[in-house]
Amino acid sequence: MTNIRTAVIGVGHLGAYHAEKYSLIDNVDLIAVCDINKSIGEKIALKHGVTLISDYKELLGKIDAVTIATDTYTHFELASFFLKNGIHVLVEKPITTTSEEAKKLTMLAEDNDLRLQVGHIERFNPALISAQKKLGKVQFIECHRLAPFKGRGADVDVILDLMIHDLDVILSLVEGSPRSVSAIGISVITNSVDIANARIEFNTGAIANVTASRVSTSVQRKFRVFHEGQYLSIDFGEGKLQLVIKEDIDDKNQNSLKEQRWSLEKGDALLAEVQAFITAIQKGIPCQVSGYDGVIALELAERIILDISKRTP
After folding, report:
1. CB under 8 Å to 279, separation ≥6 — which residues?
2. Is the pTM of this model over 0.85?
3. Same domain membership, residue 307 and residue 173
4. Does 221 lie in the same domain as 178?
5. What domain count does the chain have?
6. Do the beta carbons of residue 91 and residue 295 sit within 8 Å?
7. Is 232 exposed, middle or buried, given 0-12, 13-18 or 19+ CB atoms closer than 10 A?
8. Residue 115 DSSP one-character state
9. Rounded to 5 degrees, what are φ and ψ at 77?
């Protein structure tokens, strides 16, 4: 099998990890890293023994696939360039700044028979994968994603920075499509929304209540899923799960609750994500988190942002 030649555009905090994962996968060659910050780029290039490139266009003819881990506003320009030139793209979340841009990328990928994967990493979290095996028809979801302010991702609001992780998971679990959105959010540190809550109602009757904050003093990534006769709690950060099931105990319609708890090895969700991208290229199969998934998550995020703007003085 011919090795797949890869590169990473933007090797700051997250991009550096992408470069590391490529270096660990069989039949993959990390050819170069690209960053406009020379000192950061040189450090990562030296670590992996690859070339540092300042102009991404110089990668043409040298790579088969690329990860884009730059600021969100650059995603569309960069991804468009590579897709137009026959290169598979893994783009970090959110896929672009607008759903219209995202739709254009999905069309480019389809027209050129290329893989376009979006970096919604929670889909590869062992806790979510384990939980999905226990779920029936989801009726209600409550989730909290809280983090201290770090500056990374602050080029967009908290909906596109953090909440979009949970929006993608919700859309992957709930049948139907969002019917209505009611949201509120405020600025605390930046000039955009730093803490937000949204209530999403689906045309199937399911409801999701989502909170995201990047001004918390602690980290929390908890997801609670309810459907008839069952409650499942997922702690994405700790890899812990709790399942509560209603059980009938006699003929008088009485019932009791049975509880199960289990923990999982945290695993390496980013490695699994990058490996899935490579596998999709090698086998010519759809990506596990496709450009279309990125589009619908961004469309829902836009509805939340719009509703918040209507309520902001």
Report:
1. 285
2. yes
3. yes
4. yes
5. 2
6. no
7. buried
8. -
9. -60, -45
